[in-house]
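Honest question from a wet-lab person: if I give you the sequences of every part of a complex, can you actually get the arrangement of the whole thing, not just the pieces? Trying it with mine:
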Amino acid sequence: MVRIKYRYLLCEVCVSERSGLQMLAERPIYDALRAALGKAHGAHGAALLSVGSSVTYVNAYTGVVLLRFRKAHYRLLWSALPFVTSIWSRGQKVPCFFNCVHIGGTIRTCQKFLVRYSRQQLCRMLPHCKTEAEKQEVRRAVLSCSLNKFREEEEDNDFGEDGEETEA
Amino acid sequence: MDEEPSSYERVAYKNDSVYHYMKICLIFGNERKPLSAEQFKQLIISGLKELYGEVGAAFPFDVLTFDQFVLSAILRVYNNGLVKLWSALTLIGSCENESCAFRVTQVSSSVSKLILVLKSTGTSCRSL
Amino acid sequence: MSSHLEKCARSLLVCEKSSFMNEASRHETHVCKHSFNYKISVLIPECGVLPADIANVISHFKSYFLVRDLPVYKFLDAKFLDTVKKGGFYALSYKTRIDEDNVVALLSSGHLVLSLDKDTYQQLGLEGKPSEYKHRKDMRYVVTVDLTDKSLVPGTKRFQQVLLSLKERVPLKSDFLLTRCPPGAEEDGELQALLSQHTYEECRPTVISRSLTDIPRPSLHPSDLRGNAHSCTPVQFLEWLGSVNLNIRCNNSASSFLSTYVCPEPCATVNKVLLCTVTGFIPPEDVYALLQELRRCLAEPGFTDWVSLTVHGFADSPVSWGAAEHGFLKGGENFYNLVCFKNQDYWLHMATGSQDGCPP
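Yes, you can. This is the full assembly:
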C-alpha cells in the first residue's frame, strides 16, 4: 500500500489578550498562512500550500492548532510560520504568533504529545499561582491526570507502539 | 624556462563549476522600452520575487554583459539558483505595463561555451 | 528549501597535462577525434598583430560547402563512396536540432551516423540502438552505417537494403555542410563535380581578429594543472578565457549591483592580448595544422609564455569525440582548450555537458 505522507504541525497560537482566541477558526488561519507564504516564498510557496495542506484542528479555548502539510515540502511551509503576525477574523485583526511545539507523522502521535505537554504545563503553572484556591485547583488537576498517566501506559502496552514517527 | 617535460597527469572534474551561465534576450510585444542594465536586472529580480517571494528570491546572480540595443545579456548564477532563475524568467510577462518575454538562447556550465552564440552572422545560434 | 529546485544536470571537465615531446602524448588523437568543429579561438598574450605564419595557416583552411536539400542516399552513390573511402570527408546536416529533428553526420572514418526520432526510425527499417540519453521511454535512436564496410558495395544485398530504406522508405533529405581534407594530393575539383546536380555554395571560414588592451590575466604555471599553488583552477581559467572572448568586464567591486565577476587571483595586467576567432565548418586536420604552427611560433624567442587554442564543437552534432553519442539537453556543449607553454608542455581541458560521455 502506498499512501501520501503528511506531516502534522502542532502549534500554539500566542495572543496578547485571551479574548482573541475565541476568534480563531480554520479559514482565517489558512488565509493568514497563505498570505505569509505569498510574501516569503511567492506564488510558488502559495501553490505548494494549496496542495494537500489544511488546518485540521483548532481549539479556540486553548489556542492549539494542528496544521497538515505534505511531507515533501513541509519544511518550506514551516519556514513561513514565523511570518504570521496577525489573523483577520470576523473583520477584526488579532495580533498573534505561532509557536510550533511538535511535528508528527500522524494525528495520534500529535495528540499523545499534546497530552504530555499539557501535563508539564500544569506543573509549571503551580509556582505562578497567586491565591490558595488557585493552587488547590491546579494540584487537583495534576493529581487527576497523574492517575490517568498510569492507566494510559497500561493501554499503550496493550496496543504496542505504532505510528510513532517524529522528525526533528 | 628549460624545465623537464612534465609528466602526464589527468584529472576529471564532475560538476566542478559552481556557476551556470545563461544567454538571454528580452523582447517586447509592441513598443520597445529603453532599459539600462540596472533596470534590466531589477526587472528580473522583481520577477523572481513574484514567483519565489522574498526568501526564495534571495540569491545572488550577476549580469556579466548587457547590450542596450538588442536587450541581450549574459547572466551568471550559482548552480542551485539556475532552475529558479530560469523559471522566473519564463514567467515574466510584462515590464512597466508593456508585454514582454525573455528568450533563453543558451545555457551552459562554462562561459567558454557561450562564445558560440556571439557571432556576427546573425543566424540561428544552434547551427552555424 | 525544496531540494528539487536546486538540482541541475551534470557537467564534466577533464583536464590533462602532458608534453608535446612525450612519446605517448595523445594530443593528436584528441584533436583528430573531435570531428565537427564550429569555432576556433586563439588567444595570444603580449601580441599586437597576428603573426604572419599563423595568419597564413588560417588562410589555408579548407573551404566548406553548404548544399541545399541533399538526399541522404546520395552518400551511397558509387562516386561518393569512392571519395568517402579515401578518408578525410566530413558532412553534417545543417540547421537540424539534435533533440527534435533527424540529424545526419558522416565521419572521416566512413561511418554514417543517423540520429533519428522514433517514427522515422521505425519507418526506416535499419538496425540501430536506442539513444543513451532518454527520459523514460526510448524516443530517439541512433543508426550507424559503415560505408567502408566490404559488404556495402553496389550490388550486394546489404547495399540494396540500405539504399531501399534511405531512398524509398524514408527519403531523408536535409541541408548539409560538407568539407573534404584528403590525406594525399589536393583534389579540389572532386567535390564540386559530385555536387554539380545540387544547389550549393562554397563558403570560407570567417576570421575575426581583435586586439585587447590592458586586461588582467591570471598567471599560469605549467606544472600546476590543478591550481594548488601558483595558478588558478582549470574552471576559473576557462571562465576567464570566456570572459575575454565575450568582452566581459572583470574589474567589478564586490559590492556592485550588476556583477561581481573578477579575474581569478593571482593575476597580472597585460598590455595587449590578441584574440583571433575562426568560424566555419573546420575539419580537425586544419585544427591540427594550426596547433603545429602555434607550437613552432612558441619556440621562437621573444614570443609569449603561453598561447591558448579553444575549439568548440557543434552543439547539435550527433557525436562529440570519436563516435561517442552527444545530446543537447540544455546546452549541448562540447569543446576543448589547449594551453601550450614555451617548454612544449601543454594543458588540455575537455568539457562536455550533461548528455555526453566522458571525453577520451
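Two things worth pointing out. Chain A is about 45% helix and 25% strand. Chain A has two domains: 1-105, 109-149.
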